[in-house]
Design goal:
315 residues; mainly alpha; MetI-like fold; 2 domains
């Protein structure tokens, strides 16, 4: 009887092992160059967050949440931060927050331009899309093996793993947000004489900001999950608290770390989720983006996206 075991077995595992070993030996300068900015920014964020006094951080974050979200979310953020401190894991929480904030910066620097490129070219999107599918369906633990071989162990390699796993949602949502801009609005912008750069920065990106911020929300949550997993390769923070509790069969210690992670994740989720919601009356939260773009362009007072929408309605 013909059986599956009778078939020839492809030694894919050894091929992958040999390939990763070759890359680690021959491309080490490249990985050191990648590691350097990650290590620098992570160290800076960690130093700053640990230097801020507890009351100042709570008040500042509460005011920020009030400004970006709602008074209810601000109050929830303040209570959650106080509870985290009362659990005795404030320093670990700040380390995790520095990990997350660093990951957000690198994911934005990588993911938004990549998403814009994918939205501008169907050929690029057809190549990038299956790669994103693989990255998002790959179990989180699988990222640890190549990261350890290429970057070693510690918090910085853990940060590399977090950025790698958390970037795909932002790429997808950026591509989706730009592609969802109505064709009539784009045509109205072209009719008013906008070139490709003006079309992107003054019409498409402002209108796509709610969708992009939705992708940022997913990136934050993914980074939060990975911040626990990377504790297995020596990354510090709340994930290490959970891992130590499991290793010592100390359920209480693991529960403390888990509760702190849940509270911190809920705070970040509520704030970023509220950012992605449109304001009442249909206006999106693009004032900050528009202000930055006006400063870059010399303080132009007009709102091209609003003009294009009005032109579309007139047509």
């Amino acid at each position: 009887m013909f059986k599956a075991d009778d078939l020839a077995i492809f030694p894919i595992d050894s091929w992958i092992q040999q390939g990763v070993s070759w890359v680690a030996l021959n491309l080490r300068p490249l990985f050191l160059a990648i590691k350097w900015p990650v290590e620098g920014l992570l160290s800076l964020n960690d130093t700053v967050l640990h230097a801020i006094p507890f009351p100042v951080f709570v008040v500042g974050f509460t005011l920020l949440a009030w400004r970006l979200a709602t008074p209810g979310i601000a109050a929830f953020s303040a209570i959650s931060l106080v509870v985290v401190a009362m659990l005795g894991v404030w320093n670990e929480a700040m380390t995790t927050l520095s990990l997350i904030s660093t990951a957000i910066v690198f994911c934005a620097v990588i993911g938004i331009p990549m998403g814009i490129w994918c939205a501008s070219s169907d050929r690029v999107w057809n190549v990038v899309r299956p790669i994103l599918d693989i990255m998002q369906t790959t179990p989180s633990f699988v990222y640890l093996v190549p990261v350890v071989m290429l970057f070693g162990v510690g918090t910085v390699p853990g940060e590399v793993a977090v950025v790698t796993a958390a970037a795909p949602p932002l790429i997808r949502f950026t591509n989706l947000g730009i592609r969802m801009v109505e064709h009539e609005i784009v045509e109205a912008g072209l009719a008013f004489g906008a070139d490709k750069r003006q079309l992107l920065f003054e019409i498409q990106l402002p209108l796509a900001i709610p969708t992009i911020l939705g992708g940022l929300n997913q990136t934050v949550l993914t980074a939060m999950v990975l911040s626990v997993v990377v504790a297995m390769i020596g990354a510090e923070g709340l994930g290490l608290v959970v891992l130590q509790g499991l290793g010592r069969l100390d359920v209480g210690r693991a529960a403390v770390g888990g509760i702190a992670i849940v509270l911190l994740a809920m705070v970040l989720d509520r704030v970023t989720q509220k950012l992605a919601e449109p304001k009442r009356g249909g206006a999106t939260r693009t004032s900050l983006f528009a202000t930055v773009m006006r400063l870059v362009k010399g303080g132009r007072p007009e709102e091209p996206a609003a003009t294009a929408i009005a032109a579309k309605q007139a047509l």
